[in-house]
Each structure stands twice: as structure tokens, then as C-alpha cells.
User: Fold this.
Amino acid sequence: MLDGKVAVITGASRGIGRAVAMKLASLGAVVVINYNGSKERAEEVKREIEAGGGSADIYQCDVSDYGKCETFIQDVIREHGHIDILVNNAGVTRDGLLMKMSEEAFDQVISTNLKGAFNTIRFASRQMLKQRSGRIINMSSVVGVTGNAGQANYAASKAGVIGLTKAAARELASRGVTVNAIAPGFIETDMTSVLSEKVREATAVQIPLGTFGKPEQVAAAAAFLASEDAGYITGQVLHVDGGMAM
Assistant:
């Protein structure tokens, strides 16, 4: 159980982030729902959590903005007094072939997916070090491990998240703070809903378990890494991909 724990989840208004927020709230955590674009969707997640007896707050912040991240994390600490769990889930895609990819498309994905994780860790870790406890969970991706044609920017950002995870794990371990990554495969979210049926079928063939995963399955992995049971696990990448990266 996570009773009394404060969990900050970036990009929590939809998809995997929403599922993680719902799961951690169901285990007793006070959930901080971060969003960038859709306040309505964030409020909907908050209402669902509260309807189930949980507790949640909403904070708007573009995690790619260093200064805004500092204010965001400071506001959470001021309001709640501590941060126990940080889930870096916010992410964007700007797919395209490497030869045709614009600088802006590359920079935007790196800024949100990789720099955004750095920004929140940078400011939340100070509080966790003071507490001598904390759980940081970063969302990578199967393509950060295997690569994927047409996603040079996304694959680079998610591979970077793995490197960031391992470096942060080494730096923070002496104060009882663990840092791990989850590498989801193809999960049923808004990102994968735009795929054509032909692409979905071709992708499913590459997955040993034969199907796309569910956000709740990723959320279950995050809940484990956030729990006391995972207290001796750090610097690891947990694949939730149906065997795709084997």
C-alpha cells in the first residue's frame, strides 16, 4: 500500500499516465496529475480518482521548460510537504524518416521526453535526498532498446531515458532513493490508435504474446516499482512489451 505517499505523475491526463495515476491512487497515494495541454482530461482523471475514494491534485506544466518545472515541483512540496514517488511519463512523438526529419521535430521530442525527465528529477531529487527516501520511475520504450525506422528522435529520447535512469540511480542510491525505468512495448493508447490496421497486424506478428498491451499492465509495473517490495531494485529497465525486445 502507498497510504500517505505523494506521487507526481507527468503526462497523467491520458493513456499510460492516466492508468498509473488511477492505480497509485487506488493504493492510497495522493496523486499529483501533471498535464500540459488538456485541462479537461486532467480534471476527468481527478474526478474518477475522487469518485473511487482517492485523492488527487492537478498541476499544469510543460515539463520541457526548466524554469516551470522548478516552480511546479516547489509548489507540490509547498502544498504537500514531501514527494515520495515521481513517474516521468510525459512524452510526444513527431515521427518521420531520418533523411526528412526537421530539426524542430527532433528537438521537440528530445526536449519533452528526455529533457523533461531530467528537469523533474533535477528538482524532485533534492527533496527525496533530504527525506532519505523516494522512488523515481521513468517511462522509456521498447524502441529505446531496439530502435525503430521512422522514429529516430523518439528512439533516441527513450534510449536517453535509460542512460539518465542508470546515472541517477547511481547518484541517489546512497540516500535510499531508487531510480528505475519501464520500457513499454505497443500499448493501446492514443499514440497507437492512429496506426492503420495493416501496421497493427504487422506489429502484432513481432510480439511473442501476439497482442498489444493495456495501459493498466504498465501501471501495475509502476505500482510495483513504487512499492516497498521494490526497495532493493534500482538502475533497472523493466520491459512490459509482450516479449518484443527478447
The mean pLDDT is 96. The beta strands are 6-9, 30-35, 55-60, 85-88, 134-139, 177-184, 237-240. The domain at 6-236 is CATH 3.40.50.720 (Rossmann fold). DSSP finds nine helices and seven strands in the chain.
